[in-house]
Amino acid sequence: MRTALVIGTGLIGTSAALALNARGVQVFLEDHDQAQALTAAALGAGTAEAPPGPVDLAIVAVPPAHVATALADAMRRGVARAYIDVASVKGGPRRELEAMGRDLTGYLGTHPMAGKERSGPLAATADLFEGRPWVLTPTRDGDTEVLNLALELVALCRAVPVVMDADAHDRAVALVSHTPQLLSSLVAARLKGADETAVRLCGQGIRDVTRIAASDPAMWIDILSANPGPVADVLSEIAADLDETVRSLRALESADEDKRGSGAGGIEDVLRRGNAGRERVPGKHGAAPATYEIVAVYIGDQPGELARIFADAGRAGVNIEDVRIEHATGQQAGFIQLMVEPQAVPVLTAELRERGWSIRQ
């Protein structure tokens, strides 16, 4: 791949353009909002000028509702030898293109499983896709050259290719991406009218659950409108579990010992099923999730503190597997939770204490 045209310079399009441009591909940028394309160009994603002729690959990075129209327009103009899209829904756009009578031998639907709560070119980074799955949905009538170019794109973005059927992909993302967004928003919505005293008690748990609730509603309306059926199916199953959980909790209020026992059993069932499901979520490098120990360290809110604690952990020869920061309410300080292998805990704790860090037991 020597040349590429990115149509749509939001978070995903600009991030792909940054990655390609950094690896020697000449990238052209196109957006219905010329100011956004110019912003992406200023960030080093490519040029906002029109390509002089057909490029090797056109990457359509627009909302799902506009994918088919944008692809059909690009194909009509003959802007590339091959076409892909990176929308989060795959079945619908292909069916729309088929209904338009477009020749789809030069098209392949794809979806990089990466994103942020923020959107737009200013949120883009060249490393957004590194180590992340990038779904490809080839069909029997697709051109092999298109698949090869898509695989090259995935490699240049340092992502991990995953081949799936388009409709199977849509059912999968309904479960692992679209439904979590709605559930996060539903929980966060409870905070809108909550008493200020309750909100001040927010800890890491509520922050974890509501993190993605900060996402752009307009973007998610586009996504959910393109995949409503599979998402509704998952939510229906969750609604049934919620109904049963409510009944179990009400039973725990009963004076009847048998009802309380039944209620406790219902709650235990959903918690244990949650344990089993969580264990299936891939951990580091896509392997089964490992069990790490937490070393919690008091840390001040000042420049250089994070770098200093990571450097001290490195001197101890300890690899930090994951990290979280728990902010202290109303204070310019908090705790950093360092997740490490169990056998590394004594070594890391001793090293950090020796260097003056305060460890929370």
From TrEMBL:
UniProt domain Prephenate/arogenate dehydrogenase: residue ranges: 2-289
Gene3D superfamilies reported in the protein's UniProt record: 6-phosphogluconate dehydrogenase C-terminal like domain (1.10.3660.10), NAD(P)-binding Rossmann-like Domain (3.40.50.720)
Keyword 4Fe-4S: no
Stored PROSITE patterns: ACT, PDH_ADH
GO biological process, one term: tyrosine biosynthetic process
Signal peptide residues on this chain, from the entry's feature table: 1-19
Catalytic activity line of the entry: prephenate + NAD(+) = 3-(4-hydroxyphenyl)pyruvate + CO2 + NADH
Domain of life: Bacteria
Example of a GO MF term: NAD+ binding
InterPro entries with a match to the protein in the record: 6-PGluconate_DH-like_C_sf, ACT-like_dom_sf, ACT_dom, NAD(P)-bd_dom_sf, PDH_C, PDH_N, Preph/Arog_dehydrog, Prephen_DH
Listed Basic and acidic residues bias regions: 269-282
E.C. number(s) listed in UniProt: 1.3.1.12
Domain ACT stretches: 294-361
One Pfam family from the record: PDH_C
Keyword terms: Amino-acid biosynthesis, Aromatic amino acid biosynthesis, NAD, Oxidoreductase, Signal, Tyrosine biosynthesis
Protein family membership: Belongs to the prephenate/arogenate dehydrogenase family.
Protein name: Prephenate dehydrogenase
The organism of origin for this protein: Streptomyces lydicamycinicus
